[in-house]
TrEMBL record:
It comes from Candidatus Colwellbacteria bacterium RIFCSPLOWO2_12_FULL_46_17. This is Polysaccharide biosynthesis protein C-terminal domain-containing protein. GO terms for cellular component: plasma membrane. InterPro entries: Poly_Biosynth_Transport, Polysacc_synth. It comes from the Bacteria. It is found in: Cell membrane. The keyword Ribonucleoprotein does not apply.
């Protein structure tokens, strides 16, 4: 790092109260990764808007959501607990975490096959046949993603970012190429899951060469299972939007909603609070560092509020230029920008994970998603897409308030 830049970063720490050298070194790669992923996602959305009919895209998003719900059976919470274990030097947990996720992933395959069978018996081959292919690749796509969290735990955001970005670019190239050649739903689903399974396996095997020891601990898998249990309702709540919309309004409504929702999710990723903060917070006593964390919390509003304003003002132009077939998504997109207010609260939320406060995490990761699910079930049938959007915004407000309250009690 340039000496003058290094001095400037050290000077700025007096005002930010943050390790700016750490942020610049690791945050650079994290931001580069997220920018790359955002651009890739943007190109993919552009391709789908241009070449894939709305009903096919809506069914595609429905299958992605259904698969994400079924993937809960593969214990995704282990990824988060693995970060803390690796940060403490327990490199042997990479293999153990992957084996555990692969073992539980077999339940994911069985669940997906059961869902496929249910649709086929009901005569719905549109969803049934693609889900059969999902069942083959889904366990491997999720089990081998542990490589990314291994590098996050080591604080090597450069390697993590390069591997993740390479995975995203290659997989998206396969998907966009498939969309260009055909709008067949089975082909699109196969391109999505097969490419990710193969690429994740490749980078996992590559990462194994950097395992420095075989040390393990007894808490990582246990904590991962707890985090999965806590996050199950949250994952279901996050994916239930498309499921409910598909059943009440059909695939076209899911497509329109997705074009309003996905850009928001990608833009939130541009502020990687949780991924940057967790390794650092895991090394500290969070309860004793509350004052410093609160200081950073309030400063993050300087990022969130301008992001909301800029997004609202530019929405119409962006959709007219790049997604003209989805102009009806603009009003929904604008309201969803209010969820950017979660950005500062993400720091408080990840602090609870770093502190290992299982009870607090159970409260925040179950009560909030349950409230969202109830809101979705009530508002979506009554108000359609507007109901789903309102449920998401209200959930963000409730989640922020819950995280603030639980952090104050540390």
């Amino acid at each position: 790092m340039n000496q003058n830049i290094h001095k400037f970063l050290l000077w700025s720490q007096k005002y930010t109260g943050t390790d700016m050298v750490y942020i610049a070194k690791n945050g650079f790669w994290e931001v580069m990764k997220v920018i790359g992923i955002t651009i890739t996602s943007f190109v993919t959305m552009f391709a789908f808007a241009r070449w894939v009919p709305q009903d096919v895209y809506g069914s595609y998003r429905y299958i992605i959501s259904a698969a994400s719900i079924l993937a809960v059976l593969s214990m995704p919470g282990i990824n988060t607990s693995l970060v803390s274990a690796i940060a403490r030097g327990k490199h042997g947990m990479l293999r153990r975490a992957t084996r555990t996720r692969l073992k539980w992933g077999m339940l994911t395959a069985l669940g997906t096959m059961a869902a496929a069978g249910w649709y086929l018996v009901a005569g719905n081959t549109t969803l049934g046949l693609p889900l059969l292919f999902v069942a083959i690749f889904l366990p491997f796509a999720f089990a081998f993603e542990t490589f990314e969290f291994f590098w996050q735990g080591r604080g090597r955001f450069d390697i993590q970012s390069k591997y993740r970005l390479a995975t995203t670019i290659i997989a998206s190239t396969v998907l966009v190429s498939t969309a260009f050649l055909t709008d067949n739903l089975i082909a699109l689903v196969l391109a999505f899951f097969a490419s990710r399974a193969i690429l994740h396996a490749f980078f996992y095997l590559l990462s194994l060469k950097s395992v420095a020891n075989e040390e393990e601990d007894k808490e990582t898998i246990s904590l991962g299972k707890h985090l999965t249990a806590m996050g199950t309702v949250s994952i279901v709540g996050a994916q239930l939007e498309s499921i409910i919309l598909w059943h009440f309004l059909g695939p076209v409504a899911v497509a329109v909603f997705s074009f309003a929702r996905l850009p928001i999710a990608n833009m939130q990723g541009l502020i990687p609070i949780d991924r940057l903060a967790l390794p650092k917070l895991s090394e500290r006593n969070v309860a004793e560092d509350k004052k410093n964390i609160f200081s950073k919390f309030f400063k993050l509003f300087v990022v969130a509020i301008p992001l909301i304003v800029i997004s609202i003002l530019s929405a119409s132009l962006i959709f007219k230029l790049f997604f003209p077939t989805y102009l009806e998504a603009v009003p929904y997109f604008r309201l969803l920008t209010l969820t950017f207010l979660w950005i500062p609260f993400a720091l408080l939320d990840i602090s609870l994970v770093a502190a290992g406060r299982k009870k607090s995490l159970y409260i925040s990761q179950t009560s909030v998603p349950i409230a969202k699910i109830v809101l979705l079930l009530i508002l979506t049938p009554l108000y359609g897409i507007w109901g789903a959007v309102a449920a998401i915004v209200l959930e963000t407000v409730f989640r922020a308030g819950t995280s603030f309250y639980l952090f104050k009690r540390l």
